[in-house]
Design brief:
Elements: H1 4-8, H2 13-26, E1 32-33, H3 45-56, H4 69-81, E2 93-96, H5 98-110, E3 122-127, H6 133-139, E4 143-148, H7 159-165, E5 170-176, H8 188-203, E6 210-214, E7 240-245, E8 258-261, H9 264-279, H10 290-299, H11 301-323, E9 338-339, H12 360-371, E10 373-374, E11 376-377, E12 389-392, H13 397-412
Parallel strand pairs: 1-10, 3-4, 3-5, 5-6, 6-7
Antiparallel strand pairs: 2-8, 7-8, 9-12, 11-12
Helix pairs in contact: 3-10, 4-10, 5-6, 5-9, 7-8, 11-13
């Protein structure tokens, strides 16, 4: 018998769409995929060389669960020097199999499965937001409290909204800036204003409140807004866990290299607990990846900058093309490699294949079946996401232009 926990867990919408597109391609169908958040660039050669050298010199055995000290020190130095997070040492850093594993372990270290007479701890999510936060929190025994955002607010939660959402049961605030799926981000002043609310709430009604700041897209910023780590703000630094990794900025999705860090006594205890939890799941990441992490953080600023410039050019092409399609409303991306247009004005239309569109899921399925173009429906991102689709432009400009042509043709053919 399969557990209720497993049966109640929904598959990732992003992975599901990507797998369907791949299956069609294997059958010889010409599918253009805009589903997966995976850069089309190759990992920089110097990073690959570091891993190969480690293999050749015999770094193929077990490592400490949270990573070797040298790599953890390199990550701590990066976060101190570049992100302004003071007080970090190697003991405040844990390396994981991608940022997703760090988030999973952290959630289980922060939440308890409540007894029958207890209310579960709460986690605040400004939505729309990445699909995996909710199931990760709920699997750990937490209850999600959604704070809705809209295109009109740049998909950003206000300090007033945050203040209203915090209760004595609030354990966690999750921030993802820059944000998947919206392609927007909080500016430095907005981050400071949210931090002020967190600090005030921690002094008054929610003493156990902590922040997880998922900054996996911190280097893919091109809209003129400066990235600021909320963990750099002294008043809440020791209750802020910064989660990051090398997948997106360094084109290392398959390497599975992520990390989490939090300064102070609580941070050191939390990271040790994360290590204990991770030790029962997977132990250390692949041993010869550690030197590659250090080289990436130290020597690849130029390669990262070049990739970011390419994403900026693609963002312009994508936004211009989406804005020209009647019936779509698109917020201009300023970071990441995602566009998140509103397609709800097309609900009620009928496709050439006879399908009536009543949701973003209907739109995405019809687009794949009839125009051979894969996008992610927005329902699982929460909030107003059910009116949106997500397109990843982590692909060539030629593919973006071809996809926009298919999308425009699909919309023109709708009977309204």
């Amino acid at each position: 018998m399969i557990s209720r926990r497993a049966l109640s867990l929904k598959p990732s919408a992003t992975i599901g769409v990507a797998n369907r597109a791949k299956a069609l391609r294997r059958e010889g169908v010409d599918v253009l995929s805009f589903a997966t958040g995976e850069p089309d660039f190759d990992t920089p050669q110097v990073i690959k060389d570091a891993a190969v050298d480690a293999l050749r010199t015999g770094q193929t055995r077990y490592m400490p669960t949270l990573g070797d000290r040298q790599t953890r020190e390199a990550i701590a130095a990066k976060l101190r020097d570049e992100n302004g997070i003071a007080g970090l040492t190697w003991e405040h850093v844990g390396v994981s199999a991608g940022a997703k594993q760090a988030l999973f372990c952290l959630a289980h270290c922060l939440f308890d499965t409540p007894n029958a007479w207890e209310e579960p701890g709460e986690a605040i999510l400004p939505v729309p937001i990445w699909v995996s936060y909710r199931p990760v929190i709920e699997l750990a025994g937490g209850r999600v409290v959604e704070v809705p955002t809209t295109p009109q607010t740049g998909f950003k939660m206000t300090p007033g909204q945050l203040r209203s959402a915090i209760t004595p049961r609030t354990r966690l605030l999750v921030l993802n800036s820059p944000c998947n799926p919206t392609g927007t981000m909080y500016g430095p002043g907005e981050i400071a204003a949210l931090a002020e609310v967190v600090a005030e709430a921690a002094r008054t009604i929610a003493p156990d409140l902590v922040v997880i700041s998922d900054e996996i897209y911190e280097r893919i910023v091109y809209g003129g807004i400066e990235h600021r780590s909320i963990g750099s703000i002294p008043e809440i630094a020791e209750r802020t866990i910064t989660v990051n990794g090398l997948s997106k900025a360094y084109a290392m999705t398959g390497w599975r290299a992520g990390y989490a860090a939090c300064p102070g006594e609580f941070g050191a205890r939390l990271i040790r607990s994360m290590g204990t939890y991770q030790g029962q799941i997977s132990t250390n990441i692949t041993s010869f990846v550690y030197p590659a992490i250090r080289v990436a953080l130290r020597d690849c600023a130029a390669e990262v900058g070049a990739m970011c410039d390419a994403f900026a050019r693609r963002a312009e092409v994508m936004h211009k093309g989406l804005s020209a399609i009647e019936g779509l409303a698109s917020t201009k991306p300023v970071a990441t490699f995602y566009a998140f247009p509103d397609v709800s004005s097309l609900f009620g239309s009928t496709t050439p294949g006879g399908r009536t569109l009543g949701s973003a899921l209907d739109f995405a399925e019809a687009l794949l079946e009839e125009a051979r173009m894969a996008v992610v429906p927005g329902e699982d991102f929460g909030g107003c996401g059910g009116r949106h689709i997500r397109l990843s432009f982590a692909c060539s400009t030629q593919q973006i232009e071809a996809g926009l042509e298919r999308l425009a043709g699909f919309v023109r053919a709708l009977r309204r």
